[in-house]
Amino acid sequence: MKLWRAFVLMWLAMTLAGCGINTIPTYDEQVKAAWAQVQNQYQRRADLVPNLVNTVQGFADQEREVLVEVTEARAKVGSIQAGEDILDDPEKFKQFEQAQGQLGSALQRLMVVVERYPDLKSNQNFLALQSQLEGTENRIAVARRDYIEAVRQYNTEIRTFPGRIWHSLLYSELEQRENFEATTENAEQAPTVNFE
């Protein structure tokens, strides 16, 4: 009889292990890891901004308004605590994304200012910083894409069979995750380029 119980318990354990009982926490951890990578790239950008501003400032003292805007946007980004708890608070998540959007917009305006200063564009320090910043923006886009995919996979799992069953039985405290939304007004429209 003991042998029979051991066999049934082993069979039950193997069946449960193969039926997706661990899928939800695995996907939840993937969402958290993807979000940590997004934060990592945002931090990289925030670390580069002061160096870029200082380099440009030496050449463009009269463009203080744009430089102040970039500095203030960076400070606003830095003031928002973006730990894992932000994933569970849609309002904090939206505020964080809006602050990041404002910083990105301010950096774009800074690059327009740079076009007015040919000496700055040829400065090696500026070129290196600009290249790093462009690379960082690309990394942010990739990290966001990976986060969006992790959220899609997680949310799909907890809303479909058999994940829905495991979610209701074992993981009901895990909520659906928020995804990125465009924070820039009219982001769906292509920008107009005018060389007049």
TrEMBL record:
It comes from Alloalcanivorax profundimaris. Belongs to the LemA family. Keywords: Membrane, Signal, Transmembrane, Transmembrane helix. SUPFAM superfamilies: LemA-like. It is a single-pass membrane protein. It comes from the Bacteria. Its main location: membrane. The keyword Zinc does not apply. The lineage of its organism: Bacteria, Pseudomonadati, Pseudomonadota, Gammaproteobacteria, Oceanospirillales. Residues 1-17 form the signal peptide. This is LemA family protein. It is found in: Membrane. Pfam families: LemA.
